[in-house]
Design brief:
The chain has 188 residues and is mainly alpha-helical. It has two domains: 78 residues; 102 residues, no CATH class. Helix content is 71%, strand content 2%. The protein has a two-stranded parallel sheet with strand order 1-2. α4 crosses α6, α5 runs antiparallel to α6 and α5 runs parallel beside α7.
Amino acid sequence: MKANTWRARTKHDLIIEVWEALDCETVGARELKQIQKVVTQKFGAGSADSPASIARTLADEGAVLRHPEVLMLDTEWRERELSVLIPPDELSFSSLAEASASIKKLDTLRRKFEQNQEPQKLGRLREMTLQFKQDASGMARSKTVERQKRLEAKEIAQWLTVWLQSPDIFEDWLSLRQRSTEFIQLTS
């Protein structure tokens, strides 16, 4: 498959065109990597969607997905993407204090990407933050996690929700939140 043989003019159409050219019964990691490679060749670095997004597009067209492979590849891709934006060891959402510091780092990146007019990086940052929020929400619902950690995870998910919705007011909101009776009871 040569990059110059593709007729599609949009990423969506190219994803489908490549999938059809692969002529595969099911779609997993190998196929998704090939599709990402072609999309990157045609539309440039940073243009490829996440493996999960590509898989969703293909599933809508009738592809049968090898879900464990798709999920594993998507997780690896997101970790790589995040490490390009910020080293993974610089972010932690395992405690309220760490979450507060990590959100400040995310916000610094957000402001930088907005100032430099880098919408793709902003999108990636948002996707990663949504994943952190989902992880915190999952921990908050877990029956195997101790009660205090579940409550903190619920609080962190709420913080991330507010930051995602209104990042410019987050710092003021968090300051008010930390003075609330509910928060004080949570941390005492």
